Description:
The chain is mostly helical and about 475 residues long. It is about 65% helix and about 0% strand. The protein has helices at about 5-20, 20-30, 35-55, 65-90, 100-110, 125-140, 140-150, 160-165, 180-205, 205-220, 235-250, 255-260, 265-270, 270-295, 300-315, 330-340, 355-375, 390-415, 420-430, 450-465, 470, 475-480, and strands spanning about 380-385, 385. Strands 1-2 form a two-stranded antiparallel ribbon. The radius of gyration is 22 Å and the shape is globular.
Amino acid sequence: MQFATIFRILGILLLLFSLTMVPPGIVAMIYKDGGGVAFTLTFMVAIITGLILYLPRRHARAELKIRDGFFIVVLFWTVLSLYGALPLLLVEQPQLGIADAVFEAFSGITTTGATVIVGLDELPHAVLWYRQQLQWLGGMGIIVLAVAILPMLGVGGMQLYRAETPGPIKDAKLTPRIAGTAKALWYIYLGMTVACAISYWLAGMNAFDAIGHSFSTVAIGGFSTHDASIGYFASTRIEMICTLFMLIAGVNFSIHYLAVQRLNFGPYFKDPEFKAYLFVLVAITLLCALVLLVSGGYPFAESFTKALFHAVSIGTTTGFSTTDYYFWPSLLPVILLFTSFIGGCAGSTGGGIKVIRILLLFKQGMREIRRLVHPNGVFVIKLGKGTVSERVIQAVWGFFAAYVVLFSLLLLILMADGMDQVTAFSAVAACMNNLGPGLGDVALNYANVSDLGKWVLSFAMLLGRLEIFTLLVLFTPTFWRR
């Protein structure tokens, strides 16, 4: 392990993170309703720590190995979340304890959207802005942003990118240089954010809400500046804009890049994961609309719009809501929660297991059935016209097995802590899938969860954001062996 280089990089990243305290500080100056001191202090602490880590090691230039990349990613996401909790601890409103502040920061930076805060409408604007900004930074991954900058500082970025990028296939580059790849992804991400903010503003949101909600929509985060979430605006137009951008953000960003580069929609409809993604969301939407219509909860048009919004919101693991969907007929909240296990596409800002993994698991299951009928047959798994290697299939099965085992362990810990079965199951699912809202006692917020439960769920969020193995590999003896 190249510890000198690792801590040099961590110092650089903390220096960059300190700059994220400037926008909420400016918001505090504009609105004059509190929070400015907390962000100023956090800025100073982050920049001093960054300098302490960087300056003594500024000449360290050792080549990064893949193990170093994993360690940096986990270390930085953990440190980032802990430093991100500082302003939430220091502000006068809301008054949060350490477990609450860390939970909120982890939820923001991992784009989970679970919150312990009650009374968002009464919070200082600087705090509201900061929560939304945390999700935006975490959406594409601040590591990828840093990868675009680090080459200028003499640090290679491919190892970081491989460790950070979601999905089972991590070797694809959109451009010949990794910095070009990271920049291309961020240009698309920034463009989507600007388009979303303008659309919200034109639909009736004020500028503050439009920018804030564009941050969490494109990041598939789910934080809102209001307790009622998107339902606060009571606007079908805003709901449909939100639905569109959640749907787009849940798609593999490399597909967006190819579509922009070629100026046509061909890459979308040639991608088997995208087609499966649309199929799942359309099927869940139709099922929810039908049940709502039959149950008499809403008239025909509203049944469809509510079903579409929540199917996309929960299915992409965003977590926005416009109504108390957890009170819908008992079938629907559970189906929506299960949809979050599928999540968005690989290479998107969405959480969950990822559509491509579910698709490969399904294809592998079908292959095993065919092998039972034809024991001597040779069957390959294809995605589109390409054949999927057995190494990828094994990795998907390994991920799924690790997911189930860790999910079960976290569930048992929460139940042993006194949480009921429905709440514990949905809380672990919502946090590991980076969804946010759950069922039972965590349908609205996580304020009543014990401190132990909040630490456990913060760990679950990090597991989900780093797709398990990036974090899990650090706990193996093999990783640390020379």
